[in-house]
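go over whats below:
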Amino acid sequence: MTPEGKVKAAVRKVLDAEGVYYFSPAANGFGRAGIPDIICCVKGFFLALELKAGKGKTTALQDREIAAINNNGGLAFVVNENNINEVKEIITWVKTNFKNSVLD
């Protein structure tokens, strides 16, 4: 398994354990370039995760998409082997604090 594959497996383990709805957009030329690797919905809250390993850097397109999500009320950020714990922390915060009018 590649280093990024290990990060992806660890993140999916957290998402599964937390019961989060998520998917990975198609990266075969049919989708929009730069979209984060994993798109999540937590109590109606939009969360997007760009996965990197080691010193992996985001591209300009990825930076643009992350900024667009953050500027529109969602949360997008880069996850690597050093901050996987932040994914669970954010999910816990959303579950505790985010009020979705459909569910609450």
